[in-house]
From TrEMBL:
Any one GO molecular-function label of the UniProt entry: xenobiotic transmembrane transporter activity
Recorded family membership: Belongs to the major facilitator superfamily. Bcr/CmlA family.
This protein's name: MFS transporter, DHA1 family, bicyclomycin/chloramphenicol resistance protein
Listed GO CC annotations: plasma membrane
PROSITE patterns recorded: MFS
InterPro entries named among the record's database cross-references: Efflux_drug-R_Bcr/CmlA, MFS, MFS_dom, MFS_trans_sf
Amino acid sequence: MGTYKKHNLILILGALTALGPFSIDMYLPGFTAIAADLGTTVNKVSLSLSSYFIGISAGQLLYGPLLDRFGRKRPLYIGLAVYILASLGCALTNDIDVLIGLRFIQAVGSCAAAVASMTMVRDLFPVEDSPKIFSLLMLVVGLSPMLAPTIGSYVIAGLGWHVVFLILMCMGIAVLLASRFGLPHTRKPDPSISLSPKPILSNFALVLRNPQFYTYAFSGAIAFSGLFTYVAGSPLLFMDIFHVSEKTYGWIFAFMSVSFIGSSQLNSVLLKKYTSQQLVFISLSLQCLISLVFLLAAMNGWLNLYGTIAMLFLYLGCLGLSNPNTAGLSLAPFSENAGSASALLGALQLGLGALASVAVGIFVKETMVPMVVIMACSTALALIVLLFGRGKIKLPAAAESSTGFMH
């Protein structure tokens, strides 16, 4: 594969993956404006974020078998069409309950892009390159939390929050066109794959029984729920508790993403010296330590706005380091059912993220402590899952010596 073609593929796959984060991040500065416009509370508006997470989690399981059965492109096109129509609906509604429902549908559409992107990484690139490719995708994806809330804050201040969803609709159209003309058919339709519930569930069960998958998928997903906790809690934390403006919030969110992006790119450099397995253990250990210090400081009222930003910056850096490695290690054992494995991995990440975001909407009101408690508990649980699970992974002697896998 030529360098130019490889870069183009990564750019398009990154755009597919970035559609979801843009849909999450771009309207966050508008929570207060939406609440005022629709006559509701910021906590109720946050349920539109939770419904998005639930929709994208459920949709992952839907698209996995479809991508294996019908090839990668047809389900992708259908999902993007659903996303485009739901985005238009969000732009036109003036009812908070309708917005919450449409966000669920929008998410179901957008996750076709996310699952297809992860699956096509497995189709197009060698297994040993997967962590590096995921790091590159995270560089493209990482632009979304830098650009989306900043752009969103200015759009909302100047044109209103409805326009944000019109922009997302246009993005969906652009990604659909890029996929149609820029991505190859990486897998032919396989009529032998049944879409009846029993074989689908059996296939998911087969994936789940793989020790390498369940160890890294669950530890990575539990740790990654901390990101969703931060995303769901940040409008409440910065605009309601610290009383920053919409535009300031957008810039803070953009700055925080530098940590996530920077560490994900540092991962590519560190992989030259360390194995993915070692980097997962190191990053989760650091994340656990940082979250405990963060919790202690929050409970004792030691943190002002800048101290809170500093702690979150360090926390997100650990996530940026671990996530490409847990994703690559989770999918490495699979080829024929890569779509189902990718879907299950995404469903775990986003399902746990949805639970975390719902918890934030319920408990985070006048103090940051509940948010930090959720982040600390998820990190500690992720490390425990890793420590217990990695001893069950059986590698051939040659593979074990070459990877330096630590039992």
